[in-house]
Specification:
Two copies of one chain form a homodimer. With 290 residues, chain A is mainly alpha-helical. Helices cover 69% and strands 1% of the residues of chain A. Chain A has a two-stranded antiparallel sheet with strand order 1-2.
Amino acid sequence: MTVLNKENFEVSLQNRLNQKLNSLLKNKNIIEESISYALSNPGKRVRPLLIYLVGDALNIPERKLDSIALASEIIHTYSLVHDDLPCMDDDDLRRGKPTLHKKYSESTAVLAGDAMQTLAIKIILEDENLSNENRVKIASFLLQTIGHEGMILGQDQDIRFEEKLKVSKDEIIEMNRLKTGLLIEFCILAPILISGTKNDAWQEMATSVGISFQLIDDLLDLEESEENLGKATNKDEQKNKKSAPIVVGIIDTQKEIKKYEDKTMESLVKLGLNSHPLADYLQDLYRRRK
Amino acid sequence: MTVLNKENFEVSLQNRLNQKLNSLLKNKNIIEESISYALSNPGKRVRPLLIYLVGDALNIPERKLDSIALASEIIHTYSLVHDDLPCMDDDDLRRGKPTLHKKYSESTAVLAGDAMQTLAIKIILEDENLSNENRVKIASFLLQTIGHEGMILGQDQDIRFEEKLKVSKDEIIEMNRLKTGLLIEFCILAPILISGTKNDAWQEMATSVGISFQLIDDLLDLEESEENLGKATNKDEQKNKKSAPIVVGIIDTQKEIKKYEDKTMESLVKLGLNSHPLADYLQDLYRRRK
């Protein structure tokens, strides 16, 4: 069952999200303007698309997913804005455009990131398409995902690993899951909170997609040229960053990704979704070259 | 009506709050440890105390106020941690102790601040003493208070004013209200969301206490020596900061504060609270020397 058109669901969902992102802020001060700048940088919108696709598989109307989709993209963007800061990864470019602190200032980048976190949660809590119970459940789940036991802890480990001589594969996988995986998991599992569906295959799929998403990113980062990706590549190696392909090698990372891909596809079969657009989309994610 | 002991309510409420703050985190990683470090720096705990005092005036049991009180102090502390960063106010000391980025690192300070915002909202949303409706209402109100139309906008204006040659009194007052006032207003008005009380005098009191709180701080900052306050003083003038006493002078700032004090006391009379501990506490705030 799907209401999505198999041929163009990606573009149509991206359009839906971009429209909603564009109408969010009135740009009446530098903070709003800089948030709009960061949000308008066209990424793949992976997180909101996962929410809409899983929601479609569960027969949830799109209007009940909009606020969660928006929030996931805003949280992701906030994490990039803070991650790009000079005291963190110190990146000047993001998807080929100057990072927020380069375009505006460092203080504006700190503050805009702060305000983006606020905005994301507020959008969920004020969504009239959701019951109070669901607003609380979903916002709490998102906060659990991004806090000191989740995304922030992963970010901190990532920076700390730069100073370590040796990091194990398990430590890298754990850091990946915290830093990137949990937010992807949230996107796959949040619609399930609305529909009340229970099936362990969802959790297995979510974990597999989440961890492998970062592994693929790290592989691409090592392989592709600066031009191709629109961000500084091989910078990770220069900065003594510990990504999976750097620590365990490219071949072993590819094997690891294949393992997660197989698990993902098995879960889709278990859920009867192997011919749903979600399956195509996930397959494309595993095969992506940027 | 009060359940508070007039003689020692301040110490007993501070103890209640500190106990809850101490049991919040297990310090099992650097992020948690640094958050505990920031929260244990003993401030006056003005914001939670206002919440408990207003709640007492409205006959709300303390257990229904705990999460809001905790959240207000955590949000305040997060704003200080980010405000102290080198790219913002660049402060090395906070209440006589090294600021978080001095004690740990700049990246940890950014991340710990981020995680504190997350934690504060999560505590309210997961408070089993509040209905889902109240959790949503109160958390939304707090997010409105601290976002891109509130505290963050005020912080940005504060930094931007450093580069301006001239700033008007009205601009300073507006910046004060956004940066500091709104969170104080939240503390006075949030308990009212629980009790459902309606009276314009509460709003008038909240606005007056909020704006004058920052005015008094700025006056003290200009008057007191570094030793006395435990933070760098006169630094504001050196950095071309635009506070009210710098822009309109000490005498006019004192007059302004007196005006707000009178309004506060009138509101207390209108609400029949002029002999409630809240009145004593507010009077002490207006008279404070640090």
